[in-house]
Design brief:
Structural class: alpha+beta
Radius of gyration: 18 Å
Largest sheet: 4 strands, antiparallel
Helix content: 10-25%
Strand order of the largest sheet: 1-2-3-4
Number of helices: 4
Length: 177
């Protein structure tokens, strides 16, 4: 399926400071600005009430997003970041393909994932993610209520990280030829 190009107001696109080759995939006008998904990141640009000039722009790369859940009653996405932070992202009254596109982009950045259970279904996720530049990095995301700093947990996570890096041959990719 070929997607139609998404156009943003010029000032909003300029405020977002898109990278070379970065394309807008889905967008939604929201109260006070725009929320949009690109090939590289999730963006929110807010505008000043007077004249609509861009006020703030926030960009979060797909590799930094752990999950995003739609909350239709509040017209937002509940975005959980890899570092544990949460971000409430407005999607407006007519979000179109924005929520679906965000989920797809997050899922498509995951190359491989392993779970280290600490207790009763909670634990630490060791995830290999692909960047827009086609690099692969290994990240660790800790579930709520889990202490990822204990020696035992850190040893388990480090073992899984080494196994994952070896399985994906990440160290070999970095060696000069």
């Amino acid at each position: 399926m070929r997607l139609r190009a998404v156009r943003l107001p010029g000032a909003v696109q300029q405020a977002a400071d898109l990278h070379d080759g970065e394309r807008v995939l889905a967008a939604s006008a929201v109260e006070g600005g725009w929320t949009f998904a690109t090939t590289h990141a999730l963006h929110v640009v807010t505008t000043l009430a007077e004249g609509g000039a861009p006020d703030t722009a926030r960009r979060v790369a797909w590799t930094d997003v752990r999950s995003a859940t739609t909350v239709p009653s509040e017209r937002l996405l509940d975005v959980r970041l890899v570092d544990g932070a949460r971000w409430s992202v407005p999607v407006g009254t007519r979000p179109g393909r924005l929520p679906e596109t965000v989920r797809e982009r997050v899922q498509n950045s995951v190359v491989h994932s392993r779970f280290v259970e600490v207790r009763r279904g909670k634990g630490v996720h060791v995830v290999a993610r692909r960047t827009p530049e086609e690099d692969v990095s290994v990240q660790v995301a800790v579930d709520d209520g889990v202490d990822g700093t204990t020696e035992d947990v850190q040893a388990q996570v480090e073992q899984v990280r080494r196994e994952l890096r070896a399985e994906l041959r990440l160290d070999e990719r970095r060696r000069p030829s």
